[in-house]
Design a protein that fits this description.
mainly alpha; Four Helix Bundle (Hemerythrin (Met), subunit A); 2 strands; about 55% helix; globular
């Protein structure tokens, strides 16, 4: 077992415990046009995490091409720390996501929590399958922006912190939901 599995399992449990009793209308409720619904927060996590899968596959196949910035250790360290710091759950301010990571804008189905739980198992499997890459100190670029580079280990740290951040955001939406909605 790796250090990320425990966090992923806890995040899955926390999402399920917090939101499994909600119906489709509640999951898709938004307090305002600028705030994502609970369902959009969940969908966003699935979308963003899955963009890392082709990167992992290319690394395993030996076909991954690291951008020039990835060869500069200080840039790898700088971007890794910067991105990891920006996705921490104790968010002070909102951060706009890259367009490829936007969640669906329409109503999402009520089985999204079950899809998320399945996704989390796949994520754990992908991370476990990357043990050899981690041992090699693999460096990747962000799937959203090739100029942003960080270690694969940091990418997994970013993913789990980002999930916790969106759990906090989804809980805030739930607490803003009118009673009896």
């Amino acid at each position: 077992m790796n250090r990320w599995n425990t966090i992923i399992d806890q995040t899955t449990t926390d999402f399920t415990d917090a939101f499994s009793s909600l119906n489709e209308r509640q999951l898709n409720w938004k307090p305002n046009a600028q705030t994502w619904s609970i369902a959009q927060n969940i969908h966003h996590l699935i979308v963003i995490n899955e963009t890392y899968y082709p990167v992992l596959e290319a690394l395993h196949e030996g076909s991954y091409t690291l951008p020039f910035m990835g060869k500069m250790g200080f840039m790898v360290s700088f971007f890794g720390k910067m991105i990891l710091g920006s996705v921490q759950p104790d968010r002070k301010r909102k951060i706009k996501t890259f367009p490829i990571w936007e969640p669906a804008q329409s109503d999402l189905p009520p089985d999204l929590l079950a899809r998320f739980a399945g996704h989390q198992e796949e994520l754990k499997s992908r991370i476990a399958g990357a043990a050899d890459l981690l041992g090699q100190g693999a460096v990747i670029s962000s799937p959203a922006n090739g100029a942003i580079v960080y270690k694969l280990e940091t990418a997994f740290d970013i993913i789990v912190a980002h999930e916790r951040r969106h759990l906090t955001q989804a809980r805030e939406v739930l607490s803003a939901m009118p009673a009896g909605y």
